[in-house]
Amino acid sequence: MALWARVSSQPDSPAAGDGGEAVRTQGCRGSAVRPCSCPCLERGGHGHPPAVRCAVGGGAGRHRGRGGLGLGPLAEPGSADSRVPGCRHSSRRSGTWAGLGQRATPLGRAALTGPHGASRRGCDTGRSALAASSAAPEPGPGRSRAHRFPPPASGRAWGCRLGPMARPALRPCACAAGAQHRLHREGSFAVLSPDPLLSSLIPPGLLSVARARGAWLNVLPLASQGTGHGKQILVLGLDGAGKTSVLHSLATNRVKRSVAPTEGFNAICVNTEELQMEFLEIGGSESLRSYWKMYLPKVLLLIYVVDSADHARLPVAKQLLHQLIQNNSTLPVVVLANKQDLEGAYCITDIHDALALSDIGDNRKMFLIGTHVAEDGSEISSNMKDAKELITQLVLEAQ
Ligand SMILES: Nc1nc2c(ncn2[C@@H]2O[C@H](COP(=O)(O)OP(=O)(O)OP(=O)(O)O)[C@@H](O)[C@H]2O)c(=O)[nH]1
Ligand SMILES: [Mg+2]
Description:
Distance between the termini: 31 Å
Binding site for Mg(2+): 244, 262
CATH topology of the largest domain: Rossmann fold
Largest sheet: 8 strands, mixed
Region (Disordered): 1-26, 60-152
Bound molecules: guanosine-5'-triphosphate, magnesium ion
Structural class: alpha/beta
Binding site for GTP: 237-244, 284, 338-341
Keywords: GTP-binding, Magnesium, Metal-binding, Nucleotide-binding
Number of domains: 2
GO molecular function, one term: metal ion binding
CATH class of the largest domain: Alpha Beta
């Protein structure tokens, strides 16, 4: 049961679709909805931050039964919904996901959507549904250290992989970009990069860290039509949050869980119909976090992944996120509340509160999306597709 949220953004959000088929939404709105009494929040107790507006998405339209938490002026304000007395709602749809509108308020903005359809019972419902559908075991404490990328998927997003752990010697890359590649030998590992632009993403310090750890780095190539002008997206979050797993899944459209921590970084190129995007994940372990901020000025978008079930470290995740973006008031941020399949996972409302997203979302586009990478090999879930589409739209808008 996907959960997504727009925490705040500009009124001319890309999430605001053209309407199209109707998406039933209902909800409530107010400058200080505390606690919320809308159907999506039956679990109660959490309330909303001041000026948060909530709305529950209906089951029609392209949501296909997903629920979500939309925070921010996703769409133009809508009309009052007579089905929920005293509530207003609005909805617009763009592509495969719908945005819930809001009115800007001085303190913050938000629109929450809960699970759609008959069982509109709040985040717990969504979580248990996910847990029931997940056949994958929870990650064990000792993950393999061998960090491997999946094999090329339809020759598009994946293709080049070099490094001493995988292949002892450099050899010509057989990926689509072929001869465009420049090989860089860095001590015991190799970085393969299709063009100087992508190469420039890699900080020398990070290369050293990776070399010291004997890690092998992956810079996946642009597609053959690559222009060298990708749209960089930074992917950050604490170690174990699921960054690599999410990226694998976004790139291949198949669920592929990572089995080992990222010792340096991963750069992955994802092509959509509209554009080519370069995702750069920097590992979340403590020693790598100092590199995070180096990239913020260079990127169009920040994706911040949190482990929704790792309650103990949410304060750390919050602190790091706030520190990261405190000096950048306009960088769009997409927070992925990952591992929604786990029984103990916080729903996105709780994640919103735990990360204090209303404190950092006033002037920027900010989204909160519940994701999970549950069943290896299966097609990615609809909320992951939504996330991909949202990211694409944000990047397009940021250009
Ligand atoms: N249950 C569950 N496990 C997940 C999910 N996403 C990732 N995992 C598991 O969580 C562990 C960490 O995933 P990674 O993708 O390596 O996390 P990461 O954020 O890249 O971690 P670092 O590279 O160390 O910063 C792995 O065992 C994954 O299989 C998810 O949605 N649900
Ligand atoms: Mg990783």
